[in-house]
Amino acid sequence: MGTYIPAEVCTSYVQPGDIYLGGLFSLHGGADGEYSKEDCEGLYPVSALQLTEAMAFAVMTINQDDSVLPNVTLGFIIYDDCSWPEYATWGSLSLVLGAQPSLEGDFCNIPGPTIGGDTKHVIGIVGTGETYTTEVAINTAQLFQRPLVSYGATDQELHGEHGHPYFFGTIPSDSYKASAIVNILLYFEWEYIAMIFSDDHEIHHLEEDIVNLLEVFGICLYAEAELSEDPTEDELQQMVTMLQTHPHAKLVVVLVSSASAFSAVMSSVQGAYPPLERTWLSSNTWEKELIGNAEALGGLFIQFRKPEIMEFEEYFRSLLKGNQTNNINPWFDEFCGGSDICNEASQEGFSKELPTLAPTIDAVLALAYALDDTILALSCNSSITDCLLRDKNIQRSILENLRTVEFLGTRGEFFFEHDFVPAQVIVKNLQRSNEGNLELVEVGTWSSTKPYWEQLEINSSLLQWAGGTGDVPISVCRDECNPGYIEVIDSTKRCCWKCQACRVDDIVVGTECVSCEQNEWPNINFTMCEKLIGRTVTWHDPAVVFISFMTSLGLLLSIVTSCGMIRYRNHALIKASSRELSAVNIFGLILAFVSVFPLLLPPSVSICGVAQSLYALSFTLMYAPLFLKVNRIYRIFESSSKTVKRPKFTGPTAQLVIVAVLVSIQPILMFITALSIPGTWSTVRELFPSPSSNIHRRTVEVVCNLGFGFVVSMGYNFLLLLACCFFAYKARKVPGNFNEARFYVASVYTTLLFILAALPMYFTGGTAIIVVTSVSLVLLVNGYVTLGCVYISKIYAIIFKKVGEQDGNTMMQNRERPSSIFQSREGRSFGFSGEDNKVHPSGS
Question: Can you say whether the dihedral through the CA atoms of 289, 293, 295, 300 is positive or negative?
Fold first, then answer.
């Protein structure tokens, strides 16, 4: 059976040995670098030849090492797959069948005659360098239970879990590149990105891996542009338009497999107007091409670590010098004969520029060490070759040993991790040197063997972004929110965020607005709630000035009144109003005026306790004697209609004892409530005035809180007040010329009216000044009305009207009769002559 196969495919590079390894490499391709099934004449760069010699070098190294495969000579058979899947199938089939294809005219026959008359079965295949050719080669290898170790295929779909248990890769999977790229995006907080990728099989899978990871980590890929391997002007223009349309995507991920495609992208961006200022993150590094693209300045470029293998470089250069007389590479003269191209491509350090060189050597070593472990476990009485051919389970043993193989490879400790080698990724930054030249500087690493949070290591001090600054570029689609704003999803733009204002009394916690407590307010940055500083009344407030003035005046009048009452204490008018009870009442008035001042001071535990105690006690001192006075007047005139005897308990001593009992009840109530409810006399009340508008800061004002104890005490005072009202009403018809009760009525009713008016002001007042004013005015009005109606009027009558000048025992001196006669309600007459058996309103 025969078919048309190019001569390059039928050509083999063979090194005889006891056991063989197969190799599939791409040395030729279509003309002008294009893939062509019919044409395999295009010659690849010298690096393709170097890879075949890397396999030969690795086999030679093993054969020279007695610690690996002792007494066994390892050989190899290498075919050219021309970067075409069908030719890769032919090559892999030839290797597993142990027969060399032979070219007869225009046809290549498989199987052809065996090499040296013996069938050469390979125990494993090294190759291929591309995913799409590896996918077909692995099918043949798997059919014959031969492991295939690729030095260039990076597609994660080749993994054993996806149906290729005989596949191994000595170059890290592209999934590691995807993880490294996303890890870099997270490290620099790039959340809104664009992507450019080429129409290539491996690149497509890499792009899918990245997209899946972006969704997991919440990074928005807003726009993508797909380019062919050789981008057209239309494709490049559409790409530029895409980038211009999305200005927030400052970070652009570039996934292209060739340096020419990357250069085309940079050239089109360079000519864009308006200029595109972007940061580039590429999955590959092309040092020679990058140092000529200033548009990529500040970009990040990743690559798998490529070691420099000096032993191989010396080996290859020795071939060029003709020192290797046994060189039987059939493609050597085609690549290196008659030109200096191989010498130019083999300058010192060329090994670290070839990403698949180290993986090729490691692939050979992995198969050799796995075979060595298999032979050590094999019981064989004949030759190793015969035993390997007779043992039906030998290939499965090689496969299992290959999966667990460990040795020191070209890149350090070698082992397989999910059938791929672990990844060591280098992160480089394109910078401008001090001399003004562009250069790639290593700024970080990424390792798949470390825990996730330690995989990426970046030396930020080495970074240099576009423009030569050290500021990390921002690639997010969100507004820069001011303090007091949170970010919310913009319903008009996908993956974008806008700022939304919190309420004026909210702080920002993460992405939420959190309200402060009523007595708190956000700080200037809206990051935490701060306790509001309470404000109280101040002495320069007009209302406080007025209250202070009126209180001082009232206190002065009370003192003057006291002096007048003492001066005229033997006067009939004074004696008739019960001097002892008047003294207690005036003391209560003085205490009432004094108790206003603590209300005007900044509230504290002690001040509030003193203010409330004095307030409640002053009312008791005022209304206990007033109650006895009006009750005494009523009882005297009420009993006069029935008897001329003085009613019981109307004398000075009895009245003082009763008032002492009534007043002492108040301190007892204070003491009981203070013990039962701690703080009821000494707490501070917070007021929160409504701001003039919702943009103004909330304020808190503090006043003394009138607690339960104060309410109980004032409740007792209110009972005294009601009793005064009741007896004042009952005594309303006392004879007009000696009706002191009507003054008490005026005083009591006025005080009651102001108390009822002040209560709503106290409980609804929003500011300290309103509360303090309402409470203080009750005392002031009560004091002034009592002074004016009860005492000042008497002093005025005594001093200016000369009432009672002729006889202190007569009530009216303008009468000509020897005694004052008043008509009772029944029309009866009774007088006040000072005799003990007569009813007299005086307590003296």
Answer: positive
Q: Which residues pair with 420 in a beta bridge?
A: 169, 417
Output the pLDDT for position 800: 78
Predicted TM-score of the model (pTM)? 0.65
Which structural domains are found in the chain, ordered by start? 2-146+308-410 (3.40.50.2300), 174-305+424-462 (3.40.50.2300), 485-531 (no CATH), 542-831 (1.20.1070.10)
Per-residue pLDDT tens over the stretch 434-485? 888 889 999 999 999 999 889 999 999 999 998 767 789 999 888 788 999 9
Structural contact between residues 55 and 126, judged by C-beta atoms closer than 8 angstroms: yes
Please report which confidence band the pLDDT of residue 759 belongs to, taking 50, 70 and 90 as the band edges.
Answer: confident
Q: Which two tokens stand for residue 740?
A: 């002191």
The vertex-546 CA angle with 625 and 687, nearest 5°, equals 90
User: According to DSSP H, which parts of 595-731 are helical?
Assistant: 596-599, 605-639, 652-676, 708-730
Q: Pairing mode, if any, of strands 456-458 and 438-447?
A: antiparallel
List the structure tokens of 584. Answer: 């207690």
Task: For residue 485, list its beta bridge partners.
Answer: 501
Q: Cβ contacts of residue 266 below 8 Å, gap of 6+?
A: 293, 295, 296
C-beta of residue 84 within 8 angstroms of C-beta of residue 40 = yes
- The span from the CA of 217 to the CA of 211, in Å, is 10
pLDDT at 777 over 70: yes
Helices 310-320 & 46-63, crossing angle to 10 degrees?
A: 110
Tens digit of each residue's pLDDT (9 = 90 or more) over 120-168: 678 999 989 988 899 899 999 998 899 999 999 888 777 655 568 899 9
Q: How far apart are CA 744 and CA 751, in angstroms?
A: 11
Provide CB contacts within 8 A for 21, sequence distance 6+. Answer: 55, 59, 74, 75, 76, 77, 122, 123, 124, 125, 126, 364, 367, 368
Name residues whose C-beta falls within 8 Å of residue 779's C-beta, 6 or more positions apart in sequence. Answer: 592, 593, 595, 596, 615, 618
As a whole number of angstroms, the distance between CA 193 and CA 581 comes to: 92
Q: Is residue 719's pLDDT more than 80?
A: yes
For the chain, the straight-line distance linking the first and the last C-alpha, in angstroms and rounded, comes to 154
The answer to whether the peptide bond before residue 128 is cis (omega within 30 degrees of 0) is: yes
Rounded CA-CA distance 260/442 in Å is: 23
- Which has more pLDDT, 242 or 809? 242
**71, exposed or middle or buried, with CB in 10 Å at 0-12, 13-18, 19+?**
exposed
Mean pLDDT of the chain: 83
Instruction: Give the number of other CB atoms < 10 A from CB of residue 440.
Output: 18
Tokens of 442: 């290593």
What tokens does 237 get?
Answer: 């223009």
Q: 333 CB contacts (<8 Å, ≥6 apart)?
A: none
φ and ψ at residue 272, rounded to 5 degrees: -75, 145
